[in-house]
Amino acid sequence: MQKVPSKVASHDINHIRRVWRYTKEIAQGMDIDWDVLIAAVFLHDIGRHYPKGMGTHGPISAPFAGKVLREINFPLNKVDHALACIKFYDESFTSSDRPSLEAKVLYDADKTDVFGPIGVFRYLVFNTARGKTLKETVDYALENIKLKYETLELEQTKNVMKDKYNYVINYFLDLKKEIE
Residue 52: what pLDDT? Predict the structure, then answer.
């Protein structure tokens, strides 16, 4: 993060820490390769901080992540697995594109950053910064949150995140009543 050309506030170290916390909750009790998952979580958004990385950035992040993993002497037999998790975690890829349980956990953990109080904050701040009205933000959030929840890869994630999902849905439904 120290060497990227421009830091994107929505995907800073705090986002990565939350994704890591969600990852641990989601993957609890699963038979996964924690080395791969740790590397993928901490490097999955590195491409967002480069000019071409604002859209689908998994394929952009993967080469940068590969360079980092090689520099830190990450186990060579695990590099490709970690990079595949990063490359295919974007929403533009399908479930069948995600090659492993680790890739599915990463996908879910990243998407869950829109649930709960943090999710409310993120929707309000980032849509305001994009020039959206409160009504546009509320309508978008209600549609987007449901879609994110429905497209989670793992039932375990849905179970772990159910309360946070309900929190953000109820918040925006209440807000919608207030502004109508």
Answer: 57
